[in-house]
What does this fold into?
Amino acid sequence: MTAQLSARMRVIRSSLFDLDLHLDLAPGERVAVMGPSGAGKSTLLAALAGFVRLDAGRIELDGDVIADASVRGGTARRGIHVAPMDRGVVLLGQEARLFPHLSARENVAFGPRARGHSRTESGHAADEWLDRVGLAGFGNRMPAQLSGGQQQRVAIA
It folds into this structure.
């Protein structure tokens, strides 16, 4: 599933670093974030995922506002800030973070199970996602039995 993303954001990390960015992506569109060390790549991704609050600007995902620094009031420290786990955005680091005691299938099924889906539904969804990422037939393998690239794909699934 792909989504439309619109971001106008400013994040000030220090007196020496100020990320000011405008980004519009259509559903299915891909973008490569490239630049030298310290250019703000990680800050951009952390802001989109909700781990860094905006100092100014707004982020919309499929028309839903997930961050807006201009809105004040209520209990929010600074504007609208949807929590990372409620955004539907995933920030996947270079190292896959899988539960080592769960199989690939169980790792993928963990998300749906945590959201209240049945074991059967979650298992079917896990099998479908493993197939989508090219790992059909790998569901019973433990993370230690998978290559680094396979672990990444399980994490994506």
